[in-house]
Amino acid sequence: MDRSSPVPLYYQLARQLEAAVQAGELAPGTRLENELELAERCGLSRPTVRQAIQHLVDRGLLVRKRGVGTQVVLSEIRRPIELTSLHDDLAAAGKDPRTEVLELGPAPADDLVAKELGVPPGTEVTRIRRTRYTGDEPLALLTNYLPRDLIDLGVDDLTRHGLYELLRGSGVNLRVANQSIGARAATSAEARRLDERRGVPVLTMTRTAFDDKGGAVEYGCHVYRADRYSYSLTLVER
Amino acid sequence: MDRSSPVPLYYQLARQLEAAVQAGELAPGTRLENELELAERCGLSRPTVRQAIQHLVDRGLLVRKRGVGTQVVLSEIRRPIELTSLHDDLAAAGKDPRTEVLELGPAPADDLVAKELGVPPGTEVTRIRRTRYTGDEPLALLTNYLPRDLIDLGVDDLTRHGLYELLRGSGVNLRVANQSIGARAATSAEARRLDERRGVPVLTMTRTAFDDKGGAVEYGCHVYRADRYSYSLTLVER
DNA sequence: GAGTGGTCTAGACCACTCA
DNA sequence: GAGTGGTCTAGACCACTCA
């Protein structure tokens, strides 16, 4: 533990435990020391140790049970649930995401967009339409609406970076998102842009994301090729 | 605050705050008192107040910002993310879920099922196949695999209750689930049972759920009519 | 009955935000 | 500089689990 570091002690401990799990030093199913022992050994107070453990429980790495103890989960958990964008996910998976920006500019909000963004219908908002590729294969059609004045975006930015990355970089703190995931048949226009036949099943996702203050910062409608993409998530019961 | 109640104080406070938000007494965007004031007014310590607030932040009801304060989120958040089953979701939405049990019995685990449940291939597991209706309309085809000896199920139980409800009722504490959601065309058999045409888009979900101890307790492959069902969830960044 | 995590207290100092 | 939440301490008592 490095007390001179600006990194919180609980976070330092959490990272150490996580590293030990990933290195196999703490095998799946292993019981951790109890909280008091761990606290003493690390020179920390019990609440700080609990905060570190809670962090990993929230992420699905550890399980706790009163009267029993804390264990490393038996099974590999794929991914903690996070507010990520497709671009980040693909990049993390080494899939070489590419983006073609089809449109970037102001557009009046229709009733649905207005409702989701919490602005009066007809308000000018920024509309972004992109095609996302992995390598040379089209993977998804992305349409997003943002309040104007939230962020000043250029086509170059969107070509090189994910939208969420750009939002975070300009000081927007994304906190909550409502998502709805469904399926339907591709329209002819969608099929053409996805290099598919009309009527093939596509996966759809609509998402409204909110920042720090609870204001809507983005509404998106995405259409994915179902043969190349599925949406994975890990749920943790609290 | 009722100190004689077995309900933890932090939880009592969280429920009161939640009720105040839902009753409109704390309008969206309202700033809460600061933590010390709230603690004093409720006769609680600050860590307890923080625990209550953290609970609601995790559920997406409040947002906190250092140096600024705690606010009620501006927008209505649909649903906190939870480990629920389709049956519970439908019942909660007043949709009158009905279940037809097509199969309930032992079956050897194929490679995929064995991998997901963490048992050797060929091990006998319990296989459940059901059709879920809302009213008279077929909505989904549900196939689930459970380790034998985990729970003793009857057809009656499954007809009247959701699987997760039954698992919880018999002492299984579900904690983490890996889900993957996709889309594809219905096979002829699926289309027939869903009262649809072959090749229509369906939404698919596969899920592996883990309990307290991190052992796999259920692997499910579900197929939904895409015109009647979409998967909604709320993500909260931690 | 021994051991565990769950809850709770009453403080402290700090980093951050904003006027 | 005033006010906020973030982190941290050093304890306490309890409910629960399991042998």
From TrEMBL, chains A, B:
Residues 7-75 form the HTH gntR-type domain. Keywords: DNA-binding, Transcription, Transcription regulation. The keyword DNA-binding applies. InterPro entries: Bact_HTH_transcr_reg, Chorismate_lyase_/UTRA_dom_sf, Tscrpt_reg_HTH_GntR, UTRA, WH-like_DNA-bd_sf, WH_DNA-bd_sf. It comes from the Bacteria. It holds the Pfam family GntR. This is GntR family transcriptional regulator. The lineage of its organism: Bacteria, Bacillati, Actinomycetota, Actinomycetes, Streptosporangiales.
